[in-house]
Amino acid sequence: MKDARPLIVTGRDGAQIEVPVRISARARRLSLKVDPARGRPELVLPRGVAPTQAESFVARNVVWLEERLKRLPDPVPFADGVTIPLLGADHLIRHTPERRGTVRRIEAAETESACLEISGGADHLPRRLTDWLKREARREISQRARFYAGQLGRRPSRISIRDTRSRWGSCSSNGALSFSWRLIMAPEHVLDYVCAHEAAHLIEMNHSQRFWTLVERLVADMDMSRAWLKRHGATLHRYG
After folding, report:
1. What residue ranges of the chain have pLDDT lower than 50?
2. Does one domain contain both 148 and 221?
């Protein structure tokens, strides 16, 4: 698997769109997609496809590409005055350079709105907040994953927190669970569902009816949480 030179295609309004190209030995056909997490398109090619064939394929699909790019949510930086979700609730980012410590969470009852106060220099704010969110994700997810695994009489061999883009969680054959740290921004019922989902894989390494019965036994609002992820999950990648 390797990257090739990006293609440049002209849209209907005359604007040029850069399309990164990836060559994959596993690909059986040309595939054009838009990754919401990265906010950019990608063309996947099987080996041996001629450059002219790739260019023609993208040109034929330029209208579809433009429409998908227009639907991408705008990125939201971690910066003073920006609002981000934490466990599904909006929190205002406040830069407090004079305060000691790193990040402090203040509940809505104490101020006009819930907020996250970040100390230190402004240049360090994005990294400090990202690191804090990852630590919160590890704490919340580990607690939930172990709880749901225990309900099934199982114990994960390891729990990892990563910045995965293609899936929210995974379970390996040796019982290691992995989750996206961005789940810390989703509502709590979604966090519970993903943790229960992966815990159920400790028994059923598939998506059979037996598997879904296990998940439903662990969380009552499974369908609602699945629907939320399908509709809003990609927006979690716009933050930071």
Report:
1. 1
2. yes
